[in-house]
Amino acid sequence: MEMLSRLFSENRANAWATQSSRPGVSSARPGTIGPDLAMLSFFANLKIALKIGVTLVLLIAVGVATSVISLTTLTKIENTARWTAHTHAVIQELNTLVSAMVNQETGLRGYLVSGNESFLEPYRAGASAYADAHAAASRLTADNPAQQKRLADLDGQTRTWRTDVAEREIALMRDAVSGCETSLATATTLSAFGSASG
């Protein structure tokens, strides 16, 4: 037994010598508390009620920190969702704007090909839809000066197209239709006059 005790003491001394030569390992002798164990010793000597109190304070601090992080993240997500919905609303109004322009062009083309005034209905409806969509897009982008400028440029080009191209072509076609109707009426009158005299 004595031999086992001596062997155990030698192994313990060898283990201490090996550990103390490694970095980060306490250099205190066996049986003493090293500087890295002093903190654990401090907590080991505290009363249980104090340990529970410190643990509760730490848990509450972690809970509050988690809540603050969660609230901040949720606020960012809500803000992002609001801006995404706003962006989709602007895009929808711009798509309505484009559709209104296409309807105006389609109505104009139909009238120019046929001379029939009923083909101007899509043109008129498109002009009304364009005005509504432009007003809505302007309201939605009131806080964005760059978009306001783009909308103003688009509106200027649209008005120029409407006055310089569409309205002139409609007027020319009306004159042509009116002239054709006059010529047709004259031809019919002459034909009727020729039939009556002959």
Descriptive account of the structure:
The chain is mainly alpha-helical. The chain has a domain of 126 residues. Helices cover 84% and strands 0% of the residues. The protein has 5 helices and no strands. Helix 3 packs antiparallel against helix 4 and helix 3 packs parallel to helix 5. The longest helix is centred in the middle third of the chain and has 67 residues.
Which keywords apply here?
CHASE3 domain-containing protein; transmembrane helix; CHASE3; mainly alpha; single chain; about 200 residues; transmembrane; rod-shaped
Roughly how much helix do the residues carry, as a percent range? Answer: over 70%
Largest sheet report: none
The N- and C-terminal alpha carbons lie at a distance of: 157 Å
Percent in strands: under 5%
The dominant shape is rod-shaped
* Helix/strand order, N-terminal first: HHHHH
Specify the number of helices: 5
Radius of gyration: 45 Å
Which parts are unreliable, with pLDDT below 50 for 5 consecutive residues or more? none
State mean pLDDT (0 to 100 scale).
82
Keywords: Membrane, Transmembrane, Transmembrane helix
Domain CHASE3: 81-175
Transmembrane segments: 48-74
Pfam family, one: CHASE3
Describe the structure concisely:
It is built from five helices and no strands. The chain is mainly α and 198 residues long.
Give a topology summary.
Elements: H1 2-20, H2 38-44, H3 48-114, H4 121-140, H5 145-197
Helix pairs in contact: 3-4, 3-5
